[in-house]
Design goal:
single chain; 453 residues; alpha+beta; Nucleotidyltransferase, domain 5; 4 domains; 5-stranded mixed β-sheet; 15% strand; elongated
Length: 453
């Protein structure tokens, strides 16, 4: 530390030192009452420039005398200016209005001061000209409330930088929008789906799609789980892509905790947002015309392998994401194919139309089993392989569903409608045999011996 590093701690101490400097010639002298009065009158005629002031001024004898006695009693701290006891209490407002303003800020932290004043003025609480916005902000500051409206700042809790304890503990998931790219010469909105390991900043999945559907994300997630094993938790955005029942069910079956960030709080997903900025600066801002999505995906993988994963990361103390992620135990979180299929198979009830058609996610499929027409059936769909067709499960059997092709059906031979159940034995049931048979008389009925004479 050099002598120039020692500075007053705040404006109050700076003012106290200034006042002590004015009193310097007389603070340590033993003066009689008359001599002290003479010295104070001399000091009161000198002009001084207070700290931060643009002009000079003088100080009255009574002020200088008060400074002198308080310094002798309390030292430098006694010369520090005292804040007003009513500072921040908006003297133009009554106690009732001050409490109302404070309660509004506590209840509606996102409301701006101007909106609060406009509303209260329209409701007749006061005239707007009598209360200024800075006055209300000072009132809020004095009460420890936000001076300005909060916009996605996560409430009143302190925001802390955090990180998972090890690779594989938490994966972040999000989607980045690219609107400046053309695919095969045609302007195409590109959606980059990505997943990033929290502890290492290693990107476990990154794919380009033209949509932001759950099925796109699920295909990418399956690939990431196959290659890297499962994480302890997924920390995702609040969009519909990450709110589907398939993802929720699959994570529960695989033992993955599903977490969602608070809405309108991008800071809570800072690691993912920081990666998107790096990706934009290093690649996305330069995408102009690509032959296909496959070409874009090739460029994304090359960016990860040659630039991002191998470069030192400031948040990793100079280590690269690849080096930190490599500390994860081999085989940790591995999932076998059977568990995959079980976790990512969705079953739902669907109605079979009279012409044997089932609609699933807007796609029409048809059945060959005519006896199921008009009935509700269980349709299963596995998301492990995106191109795998759904199927119908009926009495322990797996019935094939095919994409509906009306044109082909025009030339196709109609399959027979197979009976749902075959008889196990012949019963001899024949209603025609009873038509000509004379019915037997019942006891007490007409034609019986016990009839009336």
């Amino acid at each position: 530390m050099t002598p120039n590093d020692l500075q007053p701690s705040d404006d109050a101490e700076k003012t106290a030192i200034f006042r002590a400097t004015i009193l310097g010639p007389i603070m340590l002298r033993d003066l009689t009452h008359g001599q002290l009065a003479t010295e104070l009158r001399a000091l009161s005629e000198v002009r001084y420039r207070p700290p931060g002031a643009d002009s000079t001024r003088t100080y009255q004898v009574s002020t200088l005398e008060r400074w002198l006695y308080v310094y002798r009693a309390r030292g430098l701290a006694g010369l520090c200016p005292k804040p007003r006891s009513d500072k921040g209490f908006a003297q133009a407002l009554s106690e009732e209005l001050r409490e109302l303003l404070l309660d509004i800020r506590r209840e509606h932290p996102s409301a701006s001061v101007s909106l609060i004043l406009d509303t209260l003025t329209e409701e007749g609480y006061f005239e707007k000209a009598t209360v200024s916005e800075p006055t209300v902000r000072r009132l809020y500051a004095a009460a420890g409330l936000p001076r300005r409206a909060k916009r996605g700042e996560g409430g009143t809790k302190t925001r802390l930088r955090w990180q998972a304890e090890r690779p594989g503990a938490i994966w972040h998931g999000d989607v980045c929008h690219v609107t400046t790219c053309k695919v095969a010469g045609k302007p195409t909105p590109i959606r980059i789906h990505g997943m990033l390991d929290d502890a290492s900043r290693y990107v476990v999945a990154l794919e380009a799609h033209t949509t932001e559907k759950e099925v796109d994300m699920l295909g990418m997630l399956v690939d990431a789980l196959r290659r890297h094993g499962k994480p302890d938790a997924l920390y995702l955005d609040n969009g519909s892509t990450y709110r589907g029942e398939v993802l929720k069910t699959a994570c529960a079956r695989l033992g993955i905790t599903l977490l969602h960030a608070k809405p309108y709080d991008p800071q809570a997903r800072g690691k993912m947002e920081r990666f998107w900025r790096t990706l934009r600066d290093g690649l996305l801002n330069y995408l102009r015309d690509a032959a296909s999505l496959a070409e874009i995906n090739t460029q994304l993988r090359a960016f990860l392998d040659k630039r991002y994963h191998v470069r030192p990361h400031s948040s990793l103390l100079g280590k690269s994401p690849a080096k930190v992620y490599a500390t994860r135990a081999p085989g940790e979180g591995a999932i076998d194919d059977a568990a995959f299929r079980t976790a990512l198979t969705e079953r739902s009830r669907r109605h079979v139309s009279s012409d044997n058609v089932i609609s699933l996610d807007g796609v029409a499929y048809e059945l060959d089993q005519g006896f199921l027409a008009g009935k509700n059936v269980t349709v299963a769909q596995c998301f492990v392989t995106p191109d795998e067709a759904p199927w119908v499960e009926h009495e322990g059997k797996r019935l094939v569903l095919r994409l509906l092709d009306p044109v082909k059906n025009a030339q196709r031979k109609r399959p027979p409608r197979v009976a749902e159940e075959k008889p196990t034995r012949l019963t001899g049931f024949d209603p025609t045999r009873t038509l000509l048979r004379t019915p037997k008389a019942k006891d007490g009925g007409p034609g019986s011996e016990g009839g009336a004479q």
